[in-house]
Write a structure and sequence with these properties.
The complex is a heterodimer of chains A (289) and B (281). Chain A is an all-alpha fold and 289 residues long. Chain A is built from 14 helices and 2 strands; from the N terminus they run H-E-E-H-H-H-H-H-H-H-H-H-H-H-H-H. Chain A has a single domain, classed as MetI-like (MetI-like fold, Orthogonal Bundle), CATH 1.10.3720.10. Chain A is flat. The mean pLDDT of chain A is 92. Chain B folds into 2 domains: 37 residues; 218 residues, Orthogonal Bundle (MetI-like fold), CATH 1.10.3720.10. Chain B contains 14 helices and no strands. The model of chain B has no long low-confidence stretch (mean pLDDT 89). At the A-B interface, helix 1, helix 3, helix 4, helix 5 and helix 6 of A face helix 1, helix 4, helix 5, helix 6 and helix 7 of B.
Chain lengths: 289, 281
């Protein structure tokens, strides 16, 4: 609708609350982080300008490098393992096999439970003495593989990462809905041309569901970059910082009253996030946001 | 010959498909079911065999869980904060969505893109600014502080979802109301808002789940038992219950019951919301 004179005030009144909240909680925080990343500050004393010192310090810190690496692995696995699994499941369910609605409901179920509850649950699964995983290994006769999953250097990070990759419900539902919106005529035409289901999926479904798939890849990768609760509960970054991630790092720096380095780490995280978004847009295409 | 080979192939394909679908199914529910069963055993039984069923169902684990964890209070806090933040969030987002989705003015497109881009900001990175902001507003360790933060962080996604629904209300309807002399506010409250109810409910359901499950800022912005939420409570279960695993499992089951109930009740809205939110665009 074109704006009429008498609507102007109304529009301004209605936009004010969103604008205020968005400025306070999205724009201001980013500017604030950039500023604080250039000072040395405990959060209590007077800030001192130190230039790029904080950035030099965190990039000199092996724990931070490890955290970035872990986050990148996490983001890549989320975008290119978790989402493809979701797409595969969506393709299968799009043919409405028996019970497809039940599958859809159950797949989404873990997303409803909080990350904290799920992580606590999985710490019970991984528990060295009476966990489900070691119990399962004993039952199937692979008892020699039993280990302290979260406490061993080699297994800790994979354990924290892998359990979460198979929770695909969120992305599966987004892609499935998109697939179900594709007009049936395309498939009928393909059928007449003798294209089988796999050909149909590759040539019709995937290209037409591209936007929602790209959206999922983006959401999943950002999710991989902002992990915190899972790691915090399962290992708190240990053993020997093997499972540390960027948000955990900046949280710990903040708890140590090192606001400057914490902010610098946050700025790096936001920059990596932005780089990921731009890369995906320029290679795979636009998402829906 | 060719026909037979194809049917063998499709049989194998079918088997693989069902194996895949069932694996994901079991994966999604089995740990929760295992935890629920374990929460009804004794600690001795759990240690002896993680898979056995309890000889006697130990319902007193739940009594103990309630007593030790103080979870009733935590749940009440979560209900208050999540409800208030959902109500405020949906109201503010609807107002903004109305102005943005139904009027053409300069800067409109820019604002839409700006708000939507908020969806992709890794919010967990903003701990220091949120901490400083909430502190300087005098809202540290208050339910009001958490409510404010939760209202704000859901603004981009809620506005995005509701805008999609509002944009699809036919323009003629609103023009007819204008001719009838309905002012801006009246058109919003009696026409556009009710007609986009589905979107509002969807955004609200999502917002509620986000608030209920939020941990990072509950952890950062509160310090006393009196304002703590359920999610924060779970974090302390490991300390509170020490080696009494079965009671801790019972407390975890109690803490996830409300979300499971909400999911069962609002399943259709949640699924519809996901699909409309991310697909329409």
């Amino acid at each position: 609708m074109d704006v009429k004179r008498e609507d102007r005030v109304g529009i301004a009144v209605f936009l004010t609350p969103v604008l205020v909240l968005f400025t306070l909680f999205f724009i201001f925080p980013i500017i604030y982080l950039v500023v604080v990343s250039f000072v040395e500050w405990s959060g209590l004393d007077t800030p001192v300008f130190v230039g790029f010192q904080n950035y030099l310090r965190i990039f000199d810190d092996k724990v931070f490098i490890r955290s970035i690496t872990n986050n990148l692995i996490w983001a890549l696995c989320a975008g290119f393992v978790q989402v493809p699994l979701a797409v595969l499941a969506a393709l299968m369910l799009s043919y409405k096999p028996r019970g497809w609605k039940i599958f859809r409901t159950v797949y989404f179920f873990p997303k409803v439970i909080s990350a904290i509850a799920l992580a606590t649950l999985w710490s019970a699964v991984y528990n060295a003495q009476y966990g489900l995983l070691n119990g399962l290994l004993r039952v199937v006769g692979l008892g020699h593989l039993q280990t302290n999953w979260l406490g061993t250097l080699k297994t800790a990070f994979p354990s924290v990462l892998i359990y979460w990759l198979f929770y695909i419900g969120y992305y599966m539902i987004i892609v499935l809905a998109d697939i179900q919106g594709i007009p049936q005529d395309y498939y009928e035409a393909a059928e007449i041309d003798g294209a089988g289901r796999i050909r149909q999926s590759l040539n019709i479904t995937l290209p037409l569901a591209r936007t929602s798939i790209v959206t999922c890849i983006l959401l999943a990768m950002i999710d991989g970059l902002r992990q915190f609760a899972e790691v915090y509960i399962l290992t708190n970054g240990g053993p020997a910082n093997r499972t540390s991630v960027m948000v955990l790092y900046l949280y710990k720096e903040m708890q140590n009253y090192s606001y400057g380095t914490s902010s610098a780490a946050a700025v790096v995280l936001i920059a990596i996030g932005t780089a990921v978004i731009l890369t995906i847009r320029n290679t795979l295409g636009r998402e829906t946001f | 010959m060719k026909g037979r080979r194809r049917s063998a192939g499709s049989l194998l394909f079918g088997l693989l498909k069902w194996a895949f679908l069932i694996f994901l199914f079991v994966y999604a529910v089995f740990p929760v079911i295992w935890l629920a069963v374990a929460s009804l055993k004794t600690n001795g039984e759990l240690m002896a065999n993680p898979f056995s069923l309890p000889a006697v169902w130990q319902f007193q684990n739940y009594k103990k869980a309630l007593a030790v964890s103080g979870i009733a209070r935590l749940m009440l806090n979560s209900v208050i904060i999540s409800t208030a933040a959902t109500f405020l969030n949906v109201l503010i987002a609807s107002m903004g969505a109305y102005a943005l989705s139904r009027f053409r003015f300069r800067g409109n497109q820019f604002l839409k893109v700006m708000f939507s881009s908020g969806i992709l900001i890794p919010l967990n990175a903003l701990m220091i600014p949120y901490f400083v902001l909430v502190n300087s507003l005098g809202l540290y360790n208050t339910m009001g502080g958490l409510t404010l933060v939760y209202t704000a962080i859901g603004i981009p996604i809620s506005t995005f979802i509701i805008m999609g629904f509002m944009a699809s209300v036919p323009e003629e309807l609103e023009e007819a109301a204008v001719i009838d002399g309905a002012c801006f506010y009246k058109r919003f409250f009696t026409l556009i808002f009710p007609l986009s109810r589905a979107g509002v409910v969807t955004a609200g359901t999502f917002q509620f789940l986000t608030c209920w499950n939020e941990f990072v800022y509950a952890n950062l912005l509160t310090s006393s038992q009196a304002v703590r939420t359920v999610q924060l409570g779970i974090r302390y279960f490991t300390n509170q219950f020490a080696t009494d695993y079965v009671s801790m499992y019972a407390a975890i089951i109690i803490s996830i019951l409300p979300s499971i109930t909400a999911y069962v009740l609002f399943q259709n809205q949640i699924i519809a919301g996901l699909t409309s939110g991310a697909v329409k665009g």
